[in-house]
Amino acid sequence: MTYLAKPRLHHPSLPTNALGFTRRDYEGPVSTLCAGCGHDSISAAIIQAFFELATPPHRVAKLSGIGCSSKTPSYFLGQSHGFNSVHGRMPSVLTGANLANRDLIYLGVSGDGDSASIGLGQFAHVLRRGVNMTYIVENNGVYGLTKGQFSATADKGSKSKRGAANEDEPIDLVMLALTLGATFVARGFSGDKGQLVPLIKAAVQHKGAAFLDVISPCVAFNNHPGSTKSYDYVRAHNETVNFLDYMPDREPIVADVAPGSLQTVPLHDGGSIRLRRLDADYDPGDKVAAMAYLEARRAQGEVVTGLLYLDASDFDLHDAQNTIAAPLNALGDPDLVPGNGVLGKLNASLR
Ligand SMILES: Cc1ncc(C[n+]2csc(CCOP(=O)(O)OP(=O)(O)O)c2C)c(N)n1
Ligand code: SF4
Ligand SMILES: [Mg+2]
Fold it and tell me: How far is residue 46 CA from its own chain's centroid?
């Protein structure tokens, strides 16, 4: 993989956070994703969130699977720990790392293919076990990296770039996360940074399994009329068949949705995304009501965004397993090699 290094110099009066770091200190190398890809906007929101949180970069561990979305941890938090794992296997690697060292802040980054297809089992178990992490799915409804096959989150009836309709029911990862016991569930849109940055900050600060589904349009393979996860505008009047390999310079559409309002974000190719931000009376503590609300709006073709569910009970896998608080690499011989006496007692307790 090639990386384009960013110039080290920056303006001396860039704002600094409580640690004296600038936003640049939370960046990575220049992204090699397609210009206008929603995933880059999410990376920018993550950088902004950690800068605003004034998190020491060395305290963050970012883990991912395989896909364009899973490549993105290369492009943010360049001074943090990183592990790019196997397709759909990030959750088990993250779980292991978390069990070995609870002192780090865990950020799992995945795609809809990575989490809703090959990794669906891992997705389910990492949420139901309450691993303390922020799990972000950059959801574009396609396998971007392998050139645009429908993913399991593609809406029924939505059309591929070649015009084929998806006949399968979609997996709604938010509904799944609610069912599986995630204690923080939210949905954002890569084009609404004003909403996304606070959601990321809140998820990072939540103890337990925090899940964030971010609709993140793929400008290369899912930006045509008939797609429900697109903001493409450049080729509004072109033939779809010409989209195959051309990567125009595109700017993401930015939607700023007032609380309680429904807004249609026009796609310049004739489609649209409708966003509803939850109104002030919405109770994110009522899971059953949240699920009913989401299902009703989904039937209307709307995409509900915001903090959808919060259980602030502060319980995670370590509490359930009663694990030792110290990171395993900080344990010395007295803990790791307690001697024959302790072994004898343990064996006796098992007889
Ligand atoms: C075990 C395995 N199966 C299949 C692949 C091929 N593959 C690579 S990325 C990918 C899908 C990625 O889709 P998604 O997670 O939605 O990420 P996106 O590129 O859309 O961001 C697939 C099927 C692989 N790398 N490994
Ligand atoms: S193929 Fe799609 S998901 Fe991948 S970088 Fe390009 S626009 Fe983004
Ligand atoms: Mg995808």
Answer: 10
